[in-house]
Amino acid sequence: MLRLKVINPNTSHTMSQQMAERLMQQLPEDVKLEVLTAEHGAPSIETAVEEAMAVIALLALISQDRAGLLETPPADGYLLACFGDPGLEAARELSPVPVLGIAQAAMHMAALSVPPFAIVTSMASTLPMSHQLLERYAMRSLCSTVLACEVPVMTLSQAQTPPPALLESCESARASGARSLVLGCAAMGPLRDAIAAKIKLPVIDPMLAGRDLLLTLMRQPGARSDNLVSEHKPLSGIFASGLSRL
């Protein structure tokens, strides 16, 4: 049995439940999926400050899981469920098993299927994060545009149908020459099919892309890493007892 733990780096248990329901669809029988929710931070992540807080929260969860401090055995892989991929490299330093961010997964999925792709995210405040990730993942040349629909994450998570502003941004993305669309927010995932029906383009749900690509990585021989940070320095303040004690 493979244990896949999804880390929701915001504090919304409602969003965590929505993620679990989405990711349980067509889940292989040999996979046990669990969503962990950040104990500290913001209920949604739309600014650099909120993302910085989320990094500490998700690193604490991974540290607790590796130390056996959670209710279930440690994971065989971690999925970071925020499109900013907060703390991805740091998380990989802590974890002997694969760690994947949903933005990295979605961009690679789009690049492999129907490039060029466009990204439609939530608020304009998140645009710098998306542009930084395009550079980090060497995807700039495959992305036609990055747009913000200016619909807050909390609103998107409660939407039963795509908000008009989201559809307008998706239409603009298609007009940019994109041949596929990456949804730049985990909360947009349940709206994927309705968006695809409207804009007539392949639409990548970053949560499903992340799950499927991570499971592929988890099944590879030698998926576990020995390249963990081994240096131990004395920490102070709130970190004095280690990340797992936060």
Describe the 3D structure.
By secondary structure, the chain is α/β, with parallel strands linked by helices. The protein has 9 helices and 8 strands. Helix 2 runs parallel beside helix 3. The mean pLDDT is 95.
What would you say about this model in short?
With 246 residues, the chain is of the alpha/beta class.
List the helices and strands and how they pair.
Blueprint: E1 2-8, H1 13-23, E2 31-37, H2 48-66, E3 77-80, H3 88-94, E4 99-101, H4 102-113, E5 117-121, H5 127-136, E6 143-148, H6 153-158, H7 164-175, E7 180-184, H8 192-199, E8 203-204, H9 206-218
Helix pairs in contact: 2-3, 4-9
Task: Summarize the biggest pleated sheet.
Answer: 4 strands, parallel
Described by the principal axes of the CA atoms, the overall outline is globular
Q: Which structural class is indicated by helix and strand composition?
A: alpha/beta
Radius of gyration based on Cα positions: 18 Å
Report the order of strands and helices.
EHEHEHEHEHEHHEHEH
Widest β-sheet, arrangement of strands: 2-1-3-4
Beta fraction:
15-25%
Ranges with pLDDT <50 over ≥5 residues? Answer: none
Spatial separation of the terminal alpha carbons:
29 Å
Mean pLDDT: 95
Q: Give the tally of β-strands.
A: 8
Percent helix, as a range, is 25-40%
Q: What's the total helix number?
A: 9
Defining key terms:
four-stranded parallel beta sheet; alpha/beta; 246 residues
